[in-house]
Amino acid sequence: MLQKGTKAPYFEGHDENGNLVRLSDFAGKKLVLYFYPKDSTPGCTAEACDLRDNYQRFLALGYQVLGVSRDSAASHQRFIAKYSLPFHLIADTELTILKAYEAWGEKKMYGKVTEGTLRTTYVIDENGIIIDAIGKVDTKNHTAQIL
Q1: CA 131 to CA 54: how far, in whole Å?
Q2: CA–CA–CA angle 70, 76, 82 (5° rounding)
Q3: Which pTM value belongs to this model?
Q4: Which helix (H) or strand (E) holds 145?
Q5: How far is residue 68's CA from residue 8's CA, in Å, rounded to a whole number?
Q6: Which residues are annotated as catalytic?
Q7: What are phi and psi of 15, to 5 degrees?
Q8: Residue 5 domain-assigned?
Q9: Residue of 141, 139, 140, 101 whose CA lies nearest to 123
Q10: Which region, left, alpha or beta, applies to residue 111 given φ > 0 means left and ψ of -120 to 50 means alpha?
């Protein structure tokens, strides 16, 4: 994982609507940048819905929320529509952002070692500095971990 106090790696990617999203778009704002394995799976849905249910709290505190997974834009559109997510999701199909943020690597599932998305959240301040890095995400209570 990237460490607190380090500069957040620059990124750019396309959201569910094909719009280009860059780290620089969030200059002067706090950003919750969360990486998750797959749209519409139980843990990822719980995490997204917890962030959705607390979205107004994030906005009131000056935070923007942005999700990243390797799913396609079309998959993100379905996920957003199904669960009424109020924030954008980047389709990182080439794994560029996932790797830059050390959110891609080896993980164990059911005793088997595979490569995949490491559920990780970074909180980035107004100056592009990582002020928190969460690697052990509680999907149902993620907002409490962040705030």
Answers
A1: 20
A2: 140
A3: 0.95
A4: helix 142-146
A5: 15
A6: 44
A7: -85, -170
A8: no
A9: 101
A10: left
DSSP letters along 53-118, please? HTHHHHHHTTEEEEEEESS-HHHHHHHHHHHT--SEEEE-TT-HHHHHTT-EEEEEETTEEEEEE-
φ, ψ for residue 14, nearest 5 deg: -105, 135
Distance CA 127, CA 94 (A): 27
82 in a domain, yes or no? yes
- Residue 25 located in a structural domain: yes
Q: What CA dihedral angle connects 129, 1, 110 and 143, to 10 degrees? A: -20
Report the percentage of the chain scoring pLDDT > 70. Answer: 100
Q: What is the pLDDT of residues 19-60, one digit of tens each?
A: 999 999 999 999 999 999 999 999 999 999 999 999 999 999
Distance CA 57, CA 80 (A): 19
Question: In which residue are the tokens 């569910």 written?
Answer: 16
> Residue 88 pairs with which residues in a beta bridge?
66
User: Which 3 state secondary structure label does DSSP give 122?
Assistant: strand
Residue 138 main-chain phi, psi, to 5 deg: -95, 100
Domain count, the chain: 1
CATH number at residue 32: 3.40.30.10
